[in-house]
Amino acid sequence: MKRNYCLSLVLLALFGISVPYSAVAADNVLSSQSTQQAKTITGKVVDVAGEPIIGASVLVKGSGTGTVTDINGKFSVEAPVGSTLVVSFVGYATEEVKVGAASDYTVTLKDDTQSLSEVVVTAMGIKKEKKALGYSVSDINSKELMKNKQTNVVNSLAGKIPGVNITQAGGAAGAGSNIVIRGGNSASESRDNQPLFVVDGIIYDNSTVNTGNSGTDGMTKTATTFSNRVMDINPEDIESMSVLKGAAAAALYGSRAANGVIIITTKKGEEGAVRVNVSSKYTYSWANKLPEVQNLYGRGEYNTSGAFIDKTMDSWGDRIDGTAYDNIGDFFQGSSVWDNSVSVSGGSKNGSFYLSGSNYHQSGIIPTTGYDKTTFRFNGEQKYGILTVGANVSYSQASTDKTLTSAGLYGQGGNGAMTAVYGWPIDDQMSRYLNDDGSKYRILEGLQDLEDDIENPYWILNKNTLTDETSRFTGALNASLKLTDWWDVSARAGIDKYTTSSNTLRRAGGAVKQIYQNGYMSKGDVNYQYITTNVMSNFHKTFGDFDLNLLVGTTTEATKTTNNTRWGYNFVTEGLYSFNNIIKANQYFKESTVRKRMVGLYGEFRASYKNLVYLTVTGRNDWSSTLPVNNRSYFYPSVSGSFVFTELLPKNNVLSFGKIRASWARVGKDADAYSLGYYMWPVATLNGGKYGMGNSWTGGSVGLKPEIQDSYELGLEMRFFNGRLGFDYTYYQSKTKDQICAPRLAQSTGYIFLTLNGGSVENKGMELSITGKPIVTRDFQWETTLNLSGNRGRLGDFIDGVDIFYVTDAQIGAAKAGSIPNGGYFLGLTGNKYETAQGPDGKMYNVIDASTGLYKDTQVETNIVGNREPKLIGGFNNSFSYKNFNLSFLFDIRLGGDIYNGTEYYLVTKGLSTKTINRESVSFTGVVNTGTTAKPAYETKTITYNANETYQVGNSTRSGKYMIQEYYKNYAKNAYNFITDTNWLRLRSISLSYDFKDLLKKQNIIKGLTATITGTNLFVWTNYKGMDPETCVSGSGTGGSGSAGIDYCGVPATAGMSFGINLTF
């Protein structure tokens, strides 16, 4: 009833309340004429929930007499006994009631899913009936987004849309998230597999900006956390999000849309009085799961003879006889967030406006860290006869105070805060990083040089600075001309521009290489600018039962990215942190500019017959500046169709709607800029020496072609019982060939890598969405949705001479996510493992190396040890409404997919893992080779090492304590020991809200008031023994196959509770 409230009021304003009127057609207009032998019939029209329907039409069939229902859904009409009342309203199935002896009737109207077709936003912002689409499109509205409002709108999609896999990069303030639709399509580590984002028709960059790099200021992807730039949007401004998953759905956007498209439509003003909306929300969150460590043994280790060694930060020492500190638990703090937003909107018949502002302030769970964001937006539109003009402008400013996490700065030594937190000895109080006199406290002072120390996390947080700030402006001007009732022309010009500035400061006295111990600083700027134009002409005609539409258009894109980095070391005067305090010989500057241009022509032809059959054909040709002249132009078509078979069936109360759809598409994807040749570095002074020109590690290719993806999709959509139950099933398959990749070469070529075309990525999968309204009464409603999807991606078709594809740079401990053999899984895991052999009993055993007395490892990191891709992901979303209360919750589901527990690997090597708690005795069974290398003969053997004994191992004598210690270190060499085939059921969100509308009826100032309490990530049921299994070690910006499923000393994920209010004036 609520969704028709505005329409109902319009009908009442036009026609009055229960006032007869006349028109020309008897069956669908009203008349004041009376009928002989008529009597007064009264009644009420309600929906299936018992709510009154305002403005419903009540006609006496065949007479022209009728009326409309009043604000309470009641009606009164003159009708004779035996006549038929025809009751109808937009969006509901029409009901006919036979007039008998009774004089009062209650008529219930059911939702008509076929009379009010669902409309979705598709490519180029074109709105289409969903039943006409030959491909899968999922959409989510602002109401659903706000149930668990996230400052990063990517996270709001988790578990809600099939085929969409989202991995949050930990719980650090301002951390980004990675989103992939239907698996990755590009294999190279430098290639992005995240979808294209389009906001109000303008492509919106979602890069994870890393202002530095390992070759200049030492910044790497694992050094700290970075934001993905869609976080710059205020979620309160979003009206809807549409996810275009397949190539056919996204083809009109060109080569940038090969990984799917997410279309964001922001709010507009509505006709009527000016409306003011204010929202405020407070959130408190905490680290939801921390690694477990042993609390029995302290710092130290043993040499081969069993003598104790104090010169180490590892925890292989004796039992603690004093305090065991909870260094990990004491390090993290609670996080607070204040999120405030205000908007003003309004409009008339010829124009509208929307103006908003927001502020977001977060303190992180790591001390001294935080994230702040301020946004402003204006949307406006005005009509002048056949001309409509509009503008969209937004500005945002985001800043992050963060810290080095899993790694130090490349080339400078040192470490990140998180590796130190998790690896700090429990017999030392980590929070003590200064002596009483203010000097630096060092555990190993006098035992080793400063540069060999593990830096204390509190020193890193309080003595070093790591910040970034992003200022962003986006704007668009658009105009459309309605030349005739069948022809319109539109044009749009837009810009997306931002600058991200970063600052890094290391004060003197840090545990880094000696050359940097007098301090280091760097400043970097990334300036991104994207300018686009788009002109479309649309023709629409109906010929009898045929509906035809032709769209043609052209688009231009120009992208420019400039990266400036300045860095220097050794401050002359302590405490003055400026480049003016660093001698010129120790300062460096680097500037790079990347330009790219693209021009596209596109067209789309749509045809439908009645409401039965729909056909869509598209074509687009792009010219890209990143490809060689001969291959610069490439064309890709698509065809899709749908068949609404229920149009051929008689109407019934069971099957309301049924549709079969199919599509095929071919899309291209161009190269990164400057992939055709090679570039050289200019002469530089480094560490007092002169260096000449140096060339890039990667050579280019003048014959490079675009990647080409062929994609197929089949789908079945059915709805039952007037929309009370429905499902949507999709099967898809895609293959992206001519991969733009950089295989490793012999270094004698002068390069390490060479950019060329070779290899393919194939994805196969399914998506299933089941929706239902199991209970609908006057006061209580239950709506539920179950989403499930699964994908399998594989690499293949390697070129001759290439055995391994390097699809990402994530490498931790004994495992790698990037070295995949031909035919291997796209999200495969490779790594070191133990050698195995068959024992006398026919079973397979680990091989024991007689020279070490331990299991023998392969010393090869390309063994296939797992697949990070889940077998099934999904979400179970529910909403319960009782009067003014609403309870909503979302369960996130994952079945299968390997996770490498690199954090546990690290704890084992440090002697802190609970797996290493048995220090008195260890036993293990394997096989030993009693024959020769050429003719091995294996016998089963069980070895036991006791702490207080000595052993002859090979040609040496070893103490039991030493062998136990080495047994655990050797345990870390086998990647299988840290891999879990992971399942989880996660309570992603739960919220309870109350609408105070009943309390607002007696006043006219406040139009709406809602209060909401929300819990996020409160429970995770999983077989994974590490921290939160939703993890990606290299953050959200890693290309290729990414780093999802690699857990290594990251910032733990958070759980939280929030309280918010929403006011409308």
- Tell me what portion of residues adopts beta-strand conformation: over 45%
Helical amount: under 10%
Regions with little confidence, pLDDT below 50 for 5+ residues: 1-36, 214-218, 683-690
Largest sheet: 22 strands, antiparallel, barrel
CATH class of the domain at 2-109: Mainly Beta
> CATH fold name of the domain at 2-109, please?
Immunoglobulin-like
Radius of gyration, Cα only, in angstroms? 33 Å
Give the mean pLDDT: 88
Organism: Bacteroides clarus
Domain TonB-dependent receptor plug: 131-261
Signal peptide: 1-25
Keywords: Cell outer membrane, Ion transport, Iron, Iron transport, Membrane, Signal, TonB box, Transmembrane, Transmembrane beta strand, Transport
Name the descriptors.
five-stranded mixed beta sheet; mainly beta; disordered N terminus; Immunoglobulin-like; about 1050 residues; 22-stranded antiparallel beta barrel
Word description of this protein:
This protein is mostly beta strands and 1065 residues long. It has a domain at 2-109: Carboxypeptidase-like, regulatory domain (Immunoglobulin-like). Helices cover 6% and strands 48% of the residues. It is built from eight helices and 65 strands. It has a 22-stranded antiparallel β-barrel. A five-stranded mixed sheet has the order 10-15-16-13-14. Strands 3-2-5-6 form a four-stranded antiparallel sheet, with no helix packed on it. A hairpin with an 8-residue loop joins strand 57 (921-929) and strand 58. Helix 5 packs antiparallel against helix 6 (457-463). The radius of gyration is 33 Å and the shape is globular. The chain starts with a helix and ends with a strand. Residues 1-36, 214-218 and 683-690 have low confidence and may be disordered.
